[in-house]
Structure formats: structure tokens, C-alpha cells
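pasting for ref
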Amino acid sequence: MAQYTQKAILRTFQDMLEKMPFDKITVSAIVSNCEISPNTFYYHYRDIYDLLDTWLSIKKEKYRENVSLGIRWQDATKGMLHDLKEHSALVYHLFNSLSRERIERYIFESTDDTFYRLVCRETEGVAIPEQELRNIAEYNSYSFLGFFLKFLWNHMDDDIDQGIEKIGCIFENNIQWLREKYT
């Protein structure tokens, strides 16, 4: 029952995000739409930001699984961006409602970890110092972040496939350089 309630809260939250900015969504509106008590909501989440963090983690994990399943990170990223474009109202309801610091922290944490794991996977078997791996991951993460922010600022009109392929070429060149440097 608890898992069903959590799913209902998350689904209601997402439905509300499609219709209104995050800063207009309240716990009382969520519990009313879910037909649960406030205590039930607070049993699962500390506050609306805890709910947001859980929802974002679930979304992030969905895309992370694609890469873990062996799908090229470029294809998984293209899929994610096309999905975001399909739900652009929801994205902008978050982007325009949350503090810049909160958005940047979430995006940086997500991409830094993802690119670090990709760099490690692509350089497996080569003895590369940890700091070098982190530097290359960070550089590639920042390249993607620049593209992503510009994508949002341009109302998601940029060519997703072409942009990610360009970033993919930069990533592959960085990996090749790293391998050659340490072999």
C-alpha cells in the first residue's frame, strides 16, 4: 500500500508540474488530488523539496539505466533531451521556479557522476591517475552543460542529435588523447 501511495503522489506531482510552475504546487493541493491525508504525505516526504528530489532521482535513474544497459551514452542523452522537449512545459515550470543554485547543483551532480563513470568505462585497463580521469570527466560534463543550458535558453529549438554528436566527438577525442598519453 505504501508503494502505491508513493506512486500516486509522484504521479500527481508530475501531472501538476505539467500544468503549473513548481512554486505554485503545494502539499495541500497534492494531498487533495491524491485523496490522502497530509500525514500520509509527510510519512513519505519531509516537504515538497524532498518530493522533488525523489522525483528527479527517479527520472535520472531511468536515463542512467539506459547507459548501463549498453546503449551509447549519446543515444541515451538524445532520448532524454527529446523526452524533455516533449514535456517542455514541465521542464520550464521547474526551470523558471527553482533557484539557479538548486538547478545548477542538481545538474552538475548528475552530469559529473555520469561523465566520470563514462570516462572510467572508456579507459578501463589503462593506468590513468584518478585526477586525470576526474579532469577529463569534468571537462566533458561542462561541455554538455553548456549545450544543455543553451538548449533550454533557446526554447529547445536546437538540433538535439547534431549537438550531442558534436559533444560525442569531443568526448571521444578526449578519451583517445588520455589513452595515448598513458599507454
